[in-house]
Description:
Elements: E1 9-11, E2 14-16, E3 20-22, H1 31-38, E4 44-51, H2 52-56, H3 60-65, E5 76-80, H4 84-98, E6 102-107, H5 112-115, H6 127-141, E7 148-153, H7 163-173, E8 177-181, H8 195-204, E9 209-212, H9 218-228, E10 232-235, H10 245-253, H11 264-282, H12 284-299, H13 306-312, H14 318-325
Parallel strand pairs: 3-4, 3-10, 4-5, 5-6, 6-7, 7-8, 8-9, 9-10
Antiparallel strand pairs: 1-2
Helix pairs in contact: 1-11, 4-6, 6-7, 7-8, 9-10, 11-12, 11-14
The chain binds flavin mononucleotide.
Amino acid sequence: xxxxxxxxxxxxxxxxxxxxxxxxxxxxxxxxxxxxxxxxxxxxxxxxxxxxxxxxxxxxxxxxxxxxxxxxxxxxxxxxxxxxxxxxxxxxxxxxxxxxxxxxxxxxxxxxxxxxxxxxxxxxxxxxxxxxxxxxxxxxxxxxxxxxxxxxxxxxxxxxxxxxxxxxxxxxxxxxxxxxxxxxxxxxxxxxxxxxxxxxxxxxxxxxxxxxxxxxxxxxxxxxxxxxxxxxxxxxxxxxxxxxxxxxxxxxxxxxxxxxxxxxxxxxxxxxxxxxxxxxxxxxxxxxxxxxxxxxxxxxxxxxxxxxxxxxxxxxxxxxxxxxxxxxxxxxxxxxxxxxxxxxxxxxxxxxxxxxxxxxxxxxxxxxxxxxxxxxxxxx
Length: 380
Ligand SMILES: Cc1cc2nc3c(=O)[nH]c(=O)nc-3n(C[C@H](O)[C@H](O)[C@H](O)COP(=O)(O)O)c2cc1C
């Protein structure tokens, strides 16, 4: 049986012209990167995670992250929090003061600093608290007709799965869609994403399920949707140093099999554009420094000497970037052996998931959240 691929995605009042979402990635998916990806093809481009407490208390770092490109028509933000009241207030601020059209909630972060406080991937264990957080968010967004979605993992570990309950609770709370990263918190980014879990969630709920984990090429996204019945995909690490993946993804969901294989010359143009957009948004020096982390991803598999890579890793102006890029061979073809291979974070599973004392003792947790940090920005 061949699946009819979705060619768009509907999240409440928001319609996305291709069923593809850029995964929120802390330190990566800022306004410049979202614009760069959006220039490639349609999709929903989510802002890096911001904390509800930071937003409500007017924290400066949080405010700086809440920047949108002038061409960003759908402002989409991922919010982190553990306190239903703060989350509700933060959603209200996003909708009322920042023109945000979509709010995603982070219930997947595996970082010990976050799970220790019962946040991120730890929170869905407390089903009652999860329901409270979702209900507050949905109620705050409703007057603005803004859809709320949630993003989560399979569970704490294989013995403490939460995703099916989370899906049911999301549906009952009026959440517009649920994105599932097919790993547990304990796995962090190691091993392979379990797409069968995504399929099981699709069978379990009536709201749209977005599949996430290990999409490295457009063909993987198509395969995931065919295999799971997901309404769309969320793509993270696969687009690091490869914003053109969004062009391929948009084409794939509209029935065309495109695999963009840019030459090094074309990659250089993309790198320049990325650094330029970062500079426009943050000022040249900070923008170029931010750009440094992307260089290895752009050049992965291309011929570039160690000395040049080293100098690129210290770039601090657009002029020096141009000078260094000029030393790269424009004609070098795309290294096809890189296709379909993992990039970005992988690492090892965690020995144990760090949780608040007694967290596993009950699964309700209504009214029992811990205070979150205002400056939490480690992602998910
Ligand atoms: C650098 C980095 C930062 C991330 N930050 C966040 C975040 O802020 N919020 C979140 O929900 N997930 C975050 N994630 C997880 C991704 O959104 C995504 O779920 C995960 O990488 C799996 O998808 P992928 O295999 O397509 O990368 C982050 C991942 C990476 C690599």
